[in-house]
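Fold this sequence, please.
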Amino acid sequence: MHSLPVFLRLEGRPVILLGTGEAADAKRRLLARAGAAIVDEATDAALAIVAIEEQEPALAAVARLKARGVLVNAVDRPAHCDFTLPAIVDRSPVLIAVGTGGASAGLAKALRQRLEALLPASLGRLAEALHAARAELRARFPEAGQRRRAIDSALDLGGALDPLSGAGDVAAWLAEPDTRSGSGVERIRLRSADPDELTLREARLLARADVVRHAADVPPAILDRARADAVRMTAHGDHPGLVVEIGWGD
């Protein structure tokens, strides 16, 4: 992973923007949407965007800002960037960012357009409803793992709160007497070391797992599809070949 994706709260905070023209105007609009206070180079700030077209003045500005400890995005100069600005799908409060580390803005844009078509406008309302129901969720599912598994199951493909269906009703789901958290163990025999060959079901199971017990030859690219906080254990002897055993629940 070449960069750590983060979401910065910039409301009212100063961000330096240098440059004129189309690129600078686009960055100005983006910063304004985030509520940032756009300032000049003389102002103290933690972040800066340099959208100067000419090479020498741009690199000189980048050097000055970095010498002050400011994190810099140098438009169209990825080698000089401390951070990059992704293509954004906005379903507030849900934000989806697509970045390529500056390798191809066109690719990031194309992926964003595909995601725009997939994600319903109601996605933000679903997030807000889940946030509003936190107290009720804790009361219904007191144990954190149980609560997470219940939400995972509801948000799964075809689940009561499937986020791509556009029809999730959190209150109705919580009112169901048979709302379950789910538990069990599954064994996946992989066809190859390529994570792209995981079926949708296998990918979902990995993403939900609390424990991942795997053969020593299962590559990290496969194991990275599991949650970061899932327990990983290397099994010896009884797990020949590319095998992953996953468990969730009690």
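Strands lie at 14-18, 37-39, 47-50, 71-74, 87-91, 94-98, 184-189, 211-215, 231-235, 243-248. The first strand starts at residue 14 and ends at 18.
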